């Protein structure tokens, strides 16, 4: 039996698991570098399009699909209407939605909206956004609905709900905090969280919870990083991930994970790519993806990075070394070892030795190919350094 369930390899422990994250660079977007694009996912694919690059004097309408299994980009039908940047995008029930933004036709804010069908690769114009034309707004999907608000032209603090089944927009309760643009949002368990953004020269790090079913705003724990705008946000395993961006002078690469159940933020691995703001992001199968963005006045990006979870397997009485399992590449990793000759042994429940490897390193990465079952492991040198048990499903 393969050691996976629904293509996701799992370790199940009796001890508490800690979550850590790792960034991996993927294939670049095979198109012009840009910033202020839109991104969202539909099913097992990610989508990214529009944006601007003022080195080349271009505002864009191209649209691309990313397949994480093949690590491959495919160009799709262009977003209709004016080429734009600073638009919003989200997905509902297997369809994508893109609208608002700033046009290249002499410079004007937009309020048109379009629906994308990935099966037919066709765009259909939908009802215009109900609020004023704007750019650098924020869009987020919650259950079967889309929400768009904030943005500039001028600064806004409003919020609107879009119901795709009847193609209708309705205004909801205004945000009670400061009007702003270039903020981020993510949804967890039928509510949305909004954080960061800027109002003229003032940047923010407050975080607010919006419940669409009772139409109320509640202030939550502040985003712990510096106030900023032009960040990115996405969700991994029901955890909100926010980071990057700019405060007007300083670019940031720090990232944080938000637990809705605990109303708390935890720092995670910093972004290893180039500093930037106004990148875009989407989530596929509990991995997050970050692409594009701009640094200072003339550096634009078209790279793509994947953020995936690493599940830690701590021993109750042992702090170092540590054993991790990476779900993305199905690899057992041991860190914090003394750099001397050691032996890793894995035993079946019956006591049969099923894996034995001698190594000399302070870190170890091992692809596992074992049947399902309960196993024990030990790392031995002069005496036993680390041991424990796990179950493969």
Produce a short descriptive summary.
With 393 residues, this protein is mostly beta strands.
What does this structure look like?
This protein has 393 residues and is mainly β. It has 2 domains: 21-309, 6 Propeller (Neuraminidase); 313-392, Immunoglobulin-like, CATH 2.60.40.3080. Helices cover 0% and strands 52% of the residues. The protein is elongated, with a radius of gyration of 23 Å. The relative contact order is 0.14.
Helix count, DSSP H or I runs of 4 or more residues: 0
Mean pLDDT: 88
Inertia-based shape: elongated
CATH architecture classification name of the largest domain: 6 Propeller
Helicity range: under 10%
> What's the end-to-end separation, in Å?
9 Å
Element layout with pairings:
Blueprint: E1 11-12, E2 19-26, E3 38-42, E4 45-53, E5 58-67, E6 72-76, E7 84-85, E8 88-92, E9 95-103, E10 108-117, E11 122-126, E12 138-142, E13 145-149, E14 159-163, E15 168-171, E16 184-188, E17 191-195, E18 198-199, E19 202-203, E20 207-211, E21 216-220, E22 232-236, E23 239-243, E24 255-259, E25 264-268, E26 280-284, E27 287-291, E28 294-295, E29 299-300, E30 304-312, E31 322-326, E32 331-335, E33 341-348, E34 353-360, E35 364-367, E36 373-381, E37 383-392
Antiparallel strand pairs: 1-37, 2-30, 3-4, 4-5, 5-6, 7-9, 8-9, 9-10, 10-11, 12-13, 13-14, 14-15, 16-17, 17-20, 18-19, 20-21, 22-23, 23-24, 24-25, 26-27, 27-30, 28-29, 30-31, 31-32, 32-35, 33-34, 33-36, 36-37
